[in-house]
Every structure is written in structure tokens, then in C-alpha cells.
Design brief:
Helix content is about 35%, strand content about 25%. The chain is built from two helices and four strands; from the N terminus they run E-H-E-H-E-E. It is an alpha+beta fold. It has one domain: Aminopeptidase. It starts with a strand and ends with a strand. InterPro entries: Acyl_CoA_acyltransferase. This is N-acetyltransferase domain-containing protein. It comes from marine sediment metagenome.
């Protein structure tokens, strides 16, 4: 139970990708959500967007039904 959140879109400009900014941004979001007593964050990556899946895997997200990713906070 408890409060959950869903990340609708996640975009890093092409010119600055592959520098770790996506992972840092998502990690900061997880920390911020935890301060508001959010219990779980859900992410539904679009088909073919493997980079967000890799970032989420590094941050210990789990894959659920339909490819939906989630992380308990």
C-alpha cells in the first residue's frame, strides 16, 4: 500500500547523452520521492528504448507484467 508515482516521460537531449546524466537524474528523483513518503515508482518505457531499461536495471528496478518497471522506495 501507500503512495505510488509514475514517470510518464524521461528525456535527455541527444547532445548530452551517454554522460550518466539520466541515471543521476532518476536517482535524484527516487531520493526526492522518498522524502514525500512515496512507496514505489513505476516506469513504462516505450518499445525500443533500451537505454532507460539499462538505467533502471542499474538502479534496481524490477520488471513486471507487460514490461512495466518498478522500484520500491
Amino acid at each position: 500500500g501507500g503512495i505510488t508515482a509514475e514517470l510518464g516521460e524521461f528525456y535527455i537531449r541527444a547532445a548530452v547523452r551517454r554522460r550518466g546524466m539520466g541515471g543521476e537524474t532518476l536517482a535524484a528523483l527516487l531520493r526526492a520521492l522518498a522524502t514525500y513518503e512515496v512507496r514505489r515508482l513505476y516506469v513504462d518505457p516505450p518499445e525500443g528504448h533500451d537505454q532507460i531499461r539499462r538505467i533502471c536495471a542499474r538502479l534496481r528496478f524490477s520488471e513486471g507484467a507487460g514490461g512495466r518497471l518498478s522500484r520500491k522506495l
